[in-house]
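WARN  no MSA supplied for this record, continuing single-sequence
INFO  ligand: 2KA
INFO  echoing inputs
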Amino acid sequence: MNYKINELFETIQGEGSFTGQPSIFIRLQGCPVGCSWCDTKHTWDIELADQVSPEVMLNKTEETVQWANFSAEDVLALVKDKGFQAKHIVITGGEPCMVDLTPLCAALEQQGYSTQIETSGTFEIITTEKCWVTVSPKINMRGGYKVLASAMSRANEIKHPVATEQHIDELKALLAQHKVVNTPIYIQPISQKKRATELAIASCIANNWRLSVQVHKYIGIE
Ligand SMILES: C[S@@+](CC[C@H](N)C(=O)[O-])C[C@H]1O[C@@H](n2cnc3c(N)ncnc32)[C@H](O)[C@@H]1O
Ligand SMILES: Nc1nc2[nH]cc(C(=O)O)c2c(=O)[nH]1
Ligand code: SF4
Ligand SMILES: [Mg+2]
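INFO  complex generated
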């Protein structure tokens, strides 16, 4: 099985429970959800014309729509070849759950890596049992909520992007609807905006949620 990879890089996880953890990021191409404030819009469309060789994809110096095909074995070989040191691998996108992530996560876990996926909860989550699943539901998601119940029950953490009071109200409704009790809830201000950050801090204190501020954007790393 091949995975369409837009970016593969080593950095520090900047969001959620694993914030601060050295991590290898695999960013898959393709997402039909269309969040207006998405910070990775270059991953949305899968165009065959944008397929490039692994070398071209790896040597990109800016965000582009170009992607390359990799098997799980190709990913393992590359991670070794690059000399990456991190032992934690984050699969994001785009929407990674558009494909079966089991072969990739199983191969990585077999080599001693821990795995994590970042998903919106609009597609069935098909991955290994050990994989840490971060579900980031959005309001009015194109693609809908048909599988969100199973995503919410599989979630090891829920990370909700917020900019307005309405987002907080909608999150509370989702948590009640899906009877979420013990899963850690992270509130992530949308794009470092001051008002969103203040709102996120206040709602964390009021509800005993946790704050996730996309640390990488504050310190200027990938
Ligand atoms: C780019 S998405 C890719 C994975 C998946 N499609 C999802 O939405 O979870 C990764 C994370 O970034 C968050 N995110 C995207 N754009 C953001 C922005 N402008 N500000 C804050 N968080 C953002 C998403 O909510 C998600 O938690
Ligand atoms: N450093 C860093 N941490 C991240 N955590 C989630 C990210 C994502 O785009 O899914 C991300 C990212 O793009 N960079
Ligand atoms: S679901 Fe994720 S990748 Fe897709 S548009 Fe929304 S934030 Fe971006
Ligand atoms: Mg990001």
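The longest helix spans residues 194-207.
INFO  checksum written, moving to next record
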